């Protein structure tokens, strides 16, 4: 019931804003509400089921902001300069790039029917808007380069021009100006999209794949600092990234997000890096000199410090989630058993990570990859069968601890992940040919 009233409230705002910038009579206002409410209810249930959209309030706020701004700009521009200057493509494309296909369709179809009812129920403008919505949502689902946005805009321009030509053939009238504007509108819109996208990403901390590609550059200042302060953690993170990317691609998750989040998941280890085994190169372990209770607090701190860095550098929200979720609520068993030797009554809960558990597939994959990568370094026998046995034990152990309940990963996904982890680790540790030593002649 609460969700219904929230949806109704947003529909009232969207239609009210559109009516303010392009006034219509009372009958058309009612028609606006009917159309928008139907579209909203059709898409909103699909949007709310999306795990990513529920990670943070910024996702829904960004969707609502794009909807409201679009409902103001689109009728205003069309009313001022004509039907060919619709901003439907621009707002649909931005929504798809940041939030995905379903939210993009929600914005595109809502704006299409709003301007349809506002401008004498013009079938041509409805056809043009729906066509651009469909092109934007289909061509921008998986975009990794700015040139992909330009390519999508070109397809939309061809579609828009086709509608104008069809209108000319059937209605018998269309000015040369309309042909030019119909073709140029999506192309010019793409320039605005690429220009405004970084500002929206930085403000909302919701990144497109283009933004993630930039964060995945290993020359990023945070990653360079990690490589200097905690080189072992840096190497661990790059290996986790290889595992996560391969597994995510195998099950149809966002492999780019999995790779980038893996790079940053342990950035909190830059603080007190010597307390983490992968950074201990001289054989000394500082934990031997302190109590297991203090060791637990130090390990916990790397998550808290990582979250501080994520907020400071405005890293994407999913990356921040991975930093807090990649250990879930698991027990630090080494220090727990060490503490039991001191106090047999100590509780497991005193040695748990604070969580939460992974809430989306990529986060669950990274939790598994993090544990598998660390354990694979301890293997003496690195044959395929031994590696697969280790991977299966770790993955099914985490599953049996119910750490993956909220991640969306299925048993079928886990089987594919096990196979992919095994393949990547086996390839990494493959046997090398031993070359004979050359005799040095004096």
Q: What are the salient characteristics of this protein?
A:
442 residues; 18 helices; mainly alpha; Hypothetical protein af1432; Arp2/3 complex 21 kDa subunit ARPC3; 0% strand; 2 domains; elongated
Task: Explain what you see.
Helix content is 70%, strand content 0%. With 442 residues, it is an all-alpha fold. It folds into two domains: 2-204, Arp2/3 complex 21 kDa subunit ARPC3; 216-428, Hypothetical protein af1432 (Orthogonal Bundle), CATH 1.10.3210. Helix 3 runs antiparallel to helix 4 and helix 6 packs antiparallel against helix 7 (146-171). It is elongated and about 85 Å long.
Can you lay out the helices and strands and say which pair or pack?
Elements: H1 2-21, H2 26-49, H3 57-81, H4 88-99, H5 101-118, H6 123-139, H7 146-171, H8 176-204, H9 209-215, H10 221-229, H11 231-251, H12 255-264, H13 292-312, H14 317-325, H15 333-342, H16 361-376, H17 384-400, H18 411-428
- The CATH class of the largest domain: Mainly Alpha
**What percentage of residues falls in helices of 4 or more residues?**
55-70%
Q: How many whole angstroms does the radius of gyration measure?
A: 27 Å
Shape descriptor: elongated
Number of strand segments: 0
H/I helix tally = 18
Question: Strand-and-helix sequence, N→C?
Answer: HHHHHHHHHHHHHHHHHH
């Amino acid at each position: 019931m609460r969700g219904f009233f929230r949806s109704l409230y947003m529909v009232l705002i969207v239609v009210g804003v559109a009516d303010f910038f392009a006034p219509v009579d009372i009958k058309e206002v009612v028609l606006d509400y009917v159309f928008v409410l139907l579209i909203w209810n059709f898409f909103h249930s699909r949007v709310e089921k999306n795990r990513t959209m529920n990670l943070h309030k910024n996702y829904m706020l960004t969707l609502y902001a794009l909807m409201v701004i679009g409902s103001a700009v689109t009728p205003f521009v069309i009313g001022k300069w004509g039907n060919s200057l619709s901003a439907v493509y621009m707002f649909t494309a931005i929504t798809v790039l940041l939030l995905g296909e379903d939210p993009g369709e929600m914005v595109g179809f809502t704006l299409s029917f709003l301007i349809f009812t506002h401008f004498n129920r013009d079938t041509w403008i409805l056809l043009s808007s729906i066509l651009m919505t469909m092109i934007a949502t289909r061509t921008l689902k998986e975009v990794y380069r700015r040139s992909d946005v330009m390519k999508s805009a070109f397809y939309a321009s061809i579609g828009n021009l086709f509608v104008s030509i069809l209108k000319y053939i059937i209605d018998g009238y269309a000015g040369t100006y309309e042909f030019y504007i119909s073709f140029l509108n999506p192309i010019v819109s793409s320039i605005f999209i690429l220009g405004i996208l970084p500002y929206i990403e930085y403000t909302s901390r919701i990144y497109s794949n283009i933004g993630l590609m930039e964060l995945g550059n290993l020359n990023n200042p945070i990653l360079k600092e990690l490589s200097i302060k905690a080189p072992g953690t840096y190497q661990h993170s790059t290996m986790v990234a290889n595992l996560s990317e391969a597994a995510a691609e195998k099950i149809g998750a966002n492999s780019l997000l999995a790779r980038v989040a893996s790079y940053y998941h342990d950035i909190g280890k830059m603080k007190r890096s010597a307390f983490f085994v992968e950074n201990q190169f001289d054989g000394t372990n500082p934990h031997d000199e302190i109590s297991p209770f203090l060791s637990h607090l130090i390990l916990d701190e790397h998550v808290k410090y990582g979250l501080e860095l994520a907020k400071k550098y405005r890293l994407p929200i999913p990356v921040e989630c991975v930093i807090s979720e990649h250990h879930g609520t698991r027990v630090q068993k080494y220090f727990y058993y060490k503490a039991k030797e001191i106090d047999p009554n100590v509780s497991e809960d005193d040695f748990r990570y604070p969580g939460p558990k992974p809430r989306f597939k990529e986060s669950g994959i990274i939790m598994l990859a993090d544990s598998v990568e660390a354990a694979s370094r301890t293997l003496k026998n690195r044959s395929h069968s031994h590696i697969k046995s280790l991977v299966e034990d770790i993955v099914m152990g985490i599953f049996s601890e119910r750490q993956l309940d909220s991640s969306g990963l299925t048993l079928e996904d886990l089987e594919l992940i096990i196979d992919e982890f095994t393949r990547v680790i086996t390839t990494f540790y493959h046997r090398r040919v031993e070359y004979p030593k050359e005799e040095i002649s004096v």
